[in-house]
């Protein structure tokens, strides 16, 4: 059932182009307009929303962090993201016009379920993003948008994460459509680009040989840092989480702008630092991160740079350059996350670990 792969994780990484395509299927009309009928929350209700709060755990939380950028930009709504395990222990301000979005692959994560119950008690509307039909979370939400990743067996979430990204992009663009905010050229163009993403993910997968080789060469390291800005920041956190859970290595994802506020003190000779570079089209963001790369390299870091193809400006400062197809900034996590999954999987395998069953972890965390 592993389809010829040694691990489910490898199979699930390879399935990502299909998973992304399936999650888009039937949701984009020929006129480029979106239909999310099965969501069960009316357009009228969506027009009345004045704030969004996203709750999730682990990898799903990283999808939530990316959602915030997309929702604020396309839908023009304020959006907060909160770890589900923290949400009900503070006093979140929720009203009938707050939309809470709970993201959970399994639909059985207790922290997420408790957050959903808390939100409903406060009369907020709750939308679930879930991969498992018939699981608990969708039953407890007002509406649900299913991801179509198919069963995810490996403990480390890969294809479910990419489909969660697709789901949050669809929601953000749908909100723009029904609310009339920014609905026009940009949103229309985004929908078209979104339908081209399965091919881009496929292209990334075809070029993973050097990433595997790099990962094997780092199997004896003790620590890897990950840096990103904007949506590259949650991607950096996701890369670090994968490495922690699979390779049992100390790994941390930082917002590159925070470097000088502390983490730069960690940089020493030979320390591997993975940097996720935004597209050149976002010149200000892009140039800032290029100077971050120069700063850490000057202090001895071994720089592993993920950048869009043809980005020659990063070449002089990259010890290893991993190129991904050029896509708009907000969609970039769909292509920049993949090398980080492959990196962690290969590094952990080189260390002799079972990547499908990492120690101390369970696929669904059904206790608080
Ligand atoms: O099923 P969920 O999406 O609610 O799971 C949330 C986390 O437990 C999960 O993403 C976890 O962090 C993964 N093992 C990460 O790879």
Q: How does this model look, in words?
A:
By secondary structure, the protein is α/β, with parallel strands linked by helices. It contains 14 helices and 10 strands. Strands 2-1-3-4-5 form a 5-stranded parallel sheet, with helices on both faces. It has a 5-stranded parallel sheet with strand order 7-6-8-9-10, sandwiched between helices. Strand 3 (98-104), helix 6 (110-121) and strand 4 (125-130) form a beta-alpha-beta unit. Helix 4 packs antiparallel against helix 12. The longest helix is centred in the middle third of the chain and has 21 residues, at 159-179.
Mean pLDDT: 95
Percent of residues in helical segments?
40-55%
Shape label: globular
pLDDT < 50 stretches: none
Give the H and E element order: HHHEHEHEHEHEHHHHEHEEHEEH
Distance from first to last alpha carbon: 32 Å
Strand numbers in spatial order across the main sheet: 2-1-3-4-5
Q: List the total number of helices.
A: 14
Kindly estimate the percentage of residues that lie in beta strands according to DSSP.
Answer: 15-25%
Structural class: alpha/beta
Radius of gyration: 20 Å
- Bound small molecules, which ones? 5-amino-5-deoxy-1-O-phosphono-D-mannitol
Key attributes of the depicted protein:
alpha/beta; 14 helices; 44% helix; binds 5-amino-5-deoxy-1-O-phosphono-D-mannitol
Write the layout of secondary structure elements.
Blueprint lengths: L7 H7 L1 H9 L18 H6 L2 E6 L1 H18 L3 E5 H4 L10 E7 L5 H12 L3 E6 L5 H5 L2 E4 L12 H21 L5 H11 L1 H10 L2 H9 L5 E6 L3 H16 L2 E6 L16 E5 L6 H16 L3 E7 L11 E5 L8 H18 L18
Parallel strand pairs: 1-2, 1-3, 3-4, 4-5, 6-7, 6-8, 8-9, 9-10
Helix pairs in contact: 2-8, 2-10, 4-8, 4-12, 8-9, 10-14, 11-14, 12-14
The protein binds 5-amino-5-deoxy-1-O-phosphono-D-mannitol.
5-amino-5-deoxy-1-O-phosphono-D-mannitol (M6R) binds next to helix 4 and helix 12.
